[in-house]
């Protein structure tokens, strides 16, 4: 019997990610990617003409993702171990979509660090690029001002299945669009 991670990766993630806007050919960041449970389906969606930067500070998760990439020959995922650095090692205005699921949290960042990370996300976003978040342990009302203050405009809200801590649940996913002033 498949577990929730298997169901997410083989079926649900594709439906959820395409519903919130991922498309073939995009350049995507999975910020706080963990072992790649969302980065891998995102790479399938963006295809050979797209690219996924899987950003994570946990060395073990990067190792696990790297092993999967090697085993399955997925050439359009680039794992990036930030070692906790808040500056994104990517050029300005190059990213179509940033996924930040269960990561823009006070548990991981102070308020100042969170504001800085979101500003970095805006810096690397193309004009009209998307920031797609799943704020599992924080109210969207608490982080929306940081997101809009960094130059993102609120978009759509979806209630969809999401993998959270290895378990499928329904969660609210919010989209934001970068203004052209990156």
UniProtKB/TrEMBL annotation:
InterPro entries: Methyltransf_25 (IPR041698), SAM-dependent_MTases_sf (IPR029063). It holds the Pfam family Methyltransf_25. One of its GO terms (molecular function) is methyltransferase activity. Keywords: Methyltransferase, Transferase. The keyword Cell membrane does not apply. CDD domains: AdoMet_MTases. The keyword Transmembrane helix does not apply. One of its GO terms (biological process) is methylation. Residues 28-129 form the Methyltransferase domain. This is Class I SAM-dependent methyltransferase.
């Amino acid at each position: 019997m498949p577990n929730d991670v298997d169901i997410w990766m083989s079926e649900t993630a594709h439906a959820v990610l395409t519903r919130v806007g991922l498309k073939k050919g995009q350049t995507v960041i999975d910020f706080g990617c963990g072992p790649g449970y969302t980065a891998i389906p995102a790479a399938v969606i963006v295809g050979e003409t797209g690219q996924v930067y899987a950003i994570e500070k946990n060395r073990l998760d990067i190792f696990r993702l790297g092993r999967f990439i090697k085993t399955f020959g997925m050439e359009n995922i680039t794992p990036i171990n930030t070692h906790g650095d808040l500056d994104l090692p990517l050029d300005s205005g190059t990213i179509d979509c940033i996924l930040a699921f269960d990561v823009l949290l006070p548990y991981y960042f102070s308020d100042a660090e969170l504001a800085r990370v979101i500003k970095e996300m805006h810096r690397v976003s193309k004009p009209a690029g998307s920031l797609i978040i799943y704020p599992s342990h924080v109210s969207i009302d608490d982080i929306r001002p940081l997101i809009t203050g960094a130059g993102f405009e609120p978009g759509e809200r979806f209630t969809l299945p999401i993998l959270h801590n290895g378990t499928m649940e329904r969660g609210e996913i919010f989209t934001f669009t970068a203004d052209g002033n990156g």
